[in-house]
Design goal:
The protein is mainly alpha-helical. The chain contains 12 helices and 8 strands. It starts with 9 loop residues before the first helix and ends in a 10-residue tail after the last helix. This is non-specific serine/threonine protein kinase.
Length: 318
Amino acid sequence: MAALPGGVHPAGVADAMQVDQPQPVAAGAARMDAKNGGSLVEGNSPITGHIISTTIGGKNGEPKRHYSNMNQRMPLIYVKLYTYQIFRGLAYIHTVPGVCHRDVKPQNLLVDPLTHQVKICDFGSAKMLVKGEANISYICSRYYRAPELIFGATEYTTSIDIWSAGCVLAELLLGQPLFPGESAVDQLVEIIKVLGTPTREEIRCMNPNYTEFRFPQIKAHPWHKIFHKRMPPEAIDLASRLLQYSPNLRCTALEACTHPFFDELREPHARLPNGRPFPPLFNFKQELANASPDLINRLIPDHARRHLGLNFLPATGS
């Protein structure tokens, strides 16, 4: 029986697998604990992984800590605004320089507390991926590591960043990491608890060189049961499209930007809760070079086309 990278053996997954299904965090369950360095804790168990943890011009972890101290989840408008900008940034680096970040996580996302503009930082693990060229699989912080990396894939794509961004989205919605694995084997266990046991075809898509396996058969946990009952279906749908075993089934960064979850950001008079305008969201340039007219039509609202002088683009509804 084949072992996963780092000595992770399928039998170990079976031993470690706990069939307890993940439960949504009760409102107010996540709180701040100064003794644990300001990390989120649920009950007495510290939960690592900070949400948008570093701010430009503000204290470390300001947005998340504010809502944790208030025993509130982050308002959806900020979840939408932050994650949209993450995907917009990924759309640029994936298409213009053709770079894969390979370590998308909350600690590598900078947010300006005044304008709420988000920037992706720390490109120390970034690389231009060349088809047919092997890459290291032991990359990306554990909670945000795509399953193909856990399965030892060395020829992966920028879709590993999409998985990581999906994990960040889920974390913002839940108030805690979705897949808090304590080791490589436990990380796979946490993913299987939610997505179920991967099929042979899914494993082939993740790593065609990994052919022998035997995992406990666990059914996928319904996405609507992962999140709170009042979670908008658009948020759940987007998470499910990002967090797919098969890398080629995950949406691209530009496709994620067009998702209905972000429609509120495209409304003509949409603003921040404090009345300030949103940071620039639609001034796309080179990243649209190979985008289809339909995608561009869904991506940039009419009012933004007029403002940016993009009248050459087909109007929405035409």
